DNA sequence: CCGGATCCCACAAGATACTG
DNA sequence: CAGTATCTTGTGGGATCCGG
């Protein structure tokens, strides 16, 4: 999913904006810092990542927590509502994995 | 889902473009003609509906069949691949129905 | 370390009018 | 009936630079 080769953006099923699905995946095992999120999400600029996180926060799917002890330290964590999306997310991933070859075949026979 | 009041576009889960989910729903009980689709999808212009249908066709989710017998007659039908999306679609609808109140609460407490 | 400010572009989506 | 043709607008996503 985080591999540029992996065609997760080819799937017709989307959760939130372009990166929200992957962000939620990154948070499923517990809170992560902003810079920790940037490691698997290398291809996202800081601004866009912030935008996505803010959108998730507005919808109550994620909480933002600022630890101001000496060094700046911001954590993001899934709320219960955010966790409730993990089920649908699994369904979406399973569908994509099962059918992406058919999708590719259909597209290339449609536009040679 | 087709009611303007129903907040299906509020859900973070989306299938295809803006109208694809509803189109697939309209086709789940069998083939439908273009003008039949326009009845429940009153708020979609013909152009946009055509665009969505063409996109679904390119991805192999829908087949377009022209019956040229006197009057023009075009039918759209789900392919097996398209039908395989009905499961994920149900999951998405179930999630939205179960959580849209929480979503609304989160949004209004975020931006008063 | 975690962003905000600014500028930019591509593309989705709609309004409107017209057609084989 | 089932679309096309044009035009316009809005917005998501990105590049780059700047700041507490």
Describe the structure.
Two copies of one chain form a homodimer. Chain A has a three-stranded antiparallel beta sheet with strand order 2-4-3. In chain A, 49% of the residues lie in helices and 19% in strands. Chain A has helices at 20-27, 34-38, 46-58, 80-83, 86-110; strands spanning 13-15, 32-33, 62-69, 71-78. The two termini of chain A are 27 Å apart. Chain A is α+β, with helices and mostly antiparallel strands. Chain A is built from five helices and four strands. Chain A has one domain (8-105): Winged helix-like DNA-binding domain superfamily/Winged helix DNA-binding domain (Arc Repressor Mutant, subunit A). At the A-B interface, strand 1 and helix 5 of A face strand 1 and helix 5 of B. Chain A binds a DNA duplex (20 and 20 nucleotides) through helix 3 and strand 4.
Q: What does this entry show, briefly?
A:
Chains A, B: It holds the Pfam family HxlR. The structure is a homodimer of 112-residue chains. The first copy, chain A, has helices at residues 20-27, 34-38, 46-58, 80-83, 86-110; strands at 13-15, 32-33, 62-69, 71-78.
């Amino acid at each position: 999913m985080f591999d540029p080769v992996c065609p997760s953006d080819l799937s017709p099923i989307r959760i939130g904006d372009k990166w929200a699905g992957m962000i939620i995946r990154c948070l499923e095992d517990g809170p992560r810092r902003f810079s920790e999120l940037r490691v698997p999400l290398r291809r996202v600029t800081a601004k866009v990542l912030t935008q996505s996180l803010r959108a998730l926060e507005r919808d109550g799917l994620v909480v933002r927590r600022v630890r101001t002890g000496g060094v700046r330290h911001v954590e993001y964590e899934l709320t219960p509502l955010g966790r409730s999306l993990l089920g649908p997310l699994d369904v979406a991933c399973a569908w994509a994995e099962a059918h992406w070859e058919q999708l590719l075949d259909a597209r290339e026979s449609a536009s040679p």
